[in-house]
Amino acid sequence: MLPGDGGEDVETTISMAGDQGTTITLTATEPALSITDSIDASGVLNMSLGADHHVDILSGGDSQKAIHVVSNNSVAVNVLTKGKTFALSYTANPQLVGGYFSHRVVTHCPENDTCNSLIAIVGIMNSPQIMVTVRSPTVVTINGVNYTDGDVIPVYIFQYEITLLRCKGDISGSQVFTPFPTNVFSGSYCDKVGTFGCDFTFEQIPPKRLLGSQFTIGPFPPSVNGFYRIVASTSNTAIVKDDSSTLTVINEGEFYDIKDKLQISKIESSSPVLLTMLIIDGTSQDSHSNVMIVIQPSTENRKYYRVISPEGYRSYAQMEAPRGLHRNVWINSQLVCSQDIYIEQLNVTLLFVQLEQGIGNVACSDDHPAYGLITYGFRNNLAYGYSALPGKPVKSPEGNSGKSH
Question: Rounded CA gap, 209 and 235, in Å?
Fold first, then answer.
């Protein structure tokens, strides 16, 4: 799904990372489209789509504007959408098969008149009935109908159809339960999270079977603020921090916000949870942008990544390392300088690397443990962010001291 604001200047770049020679076909129904191309030596294939293929999440209704990506080998897919008044990005989940699917959404919508929560459901195949269970402490009006906590909204959807559910107020923890594979997105628009500004947040929400129980988190660079939100998929879920103390216990569909990030480096939960980060760019009172990123569990940590930085943005990569193993970081075979924040009580270092425009191949030294990496960027009142794409190792220009890809 490609979100838009109804403007004619909206454009999306779909970036697909994989092995050279991998063939990729991108198709759409409304308007009809079919493009086939292959990945070159850079390891990334970019395809751009204009305003006609975007869903107007501000005022649009149901549509047939789903985008379908098929490849003959495994690829990682990132979506970057830019308009005149917004920017957003997400890493797409692979299509799963078999069984029932439960998604717990996050909307990050504070209590004000400008914020609207959004759930978008994309049909991968015809579905007889999807059940959306509302979580809200107050009455919410979704698509013109009033609902209270625990009410169920039946949704019927066809292949490649997109259904939008919109309301005022935060409905984080609401469940989308489907009998067949379905892509679920959530977020908010005109999202006044901080003191200033109005922006989109938007992410693809993984199903319960892709959630994790161990995560690495950290603070943000100077002038950038934010917090983490944890949503439980199972009742009586204990959230534990570095020192083995319990932060909280939450039930299915409940959420907990972590704002004291300097005191916490790792999060563990007794059952799988959804962890999202909200980044707030506060560089000036006139420039305020928000980004929501689904944080991958530690089981998905790697040593090699690809990042894609659009033109005109100040972009960053963020990673964590144990103290003493944070100086050997390469991007495109060049040793880079990072801004490091050492957290003494946790004995870890947070690395922030400013990225150049284009494709960046990120790698660390051989003795560096696997790590998580996210990337985000800002420009005026626009922002984007996503979990970095997986990369492939090759021999480092520094000999045995490291690798690059």
Answer: 16
Residue 339: partners with Cβ closer than 8 Å, 6 or more residues away: 221, 351, 352, 353, 354
- The per-residue pLDDT for range 185-222, each reduced to its tens digit, is 999 886 554 444 456 788 999 999 899 999 988 766 66
Predicted local distance difference test score (pLDDT) of residue 74: 87
Structure tokens at 94: 């692979």
Measured in Å, how far apart are the chain's first and last C-alpha atoms? 30
- pTM to 2 decimals? 0.89
Compute φ and ψ for 166, nearest 5 degrees.
-130, 145
In one-letter notation, the amino acid at residue 26 is L
Q: Cα separation of 393 and 220, whole Å?
A: 28
Token digits of residue 92 = 């797409």
Buried b vs exposed e over 369-386: b needs ≥16 C-beta within 10 Å?
A: eebbbbbbbbbebbbbbb
Q: What pLDDT, on a 0 to 100 scale, did the predictor assign at position 328? A: 67
Using DSSP, state whether 215 is helix, strand or coil. Answer: strand
**Quick one: tokens of 134?**
């509302």
Is residue 221 a contact partner of residue 339, using CB atoms and an 8 Å limit? Answer: yes
* CB 245, CB 231: distance < 8 Å: no
CA dist., res. 346 & res. 263, Å (int): 8
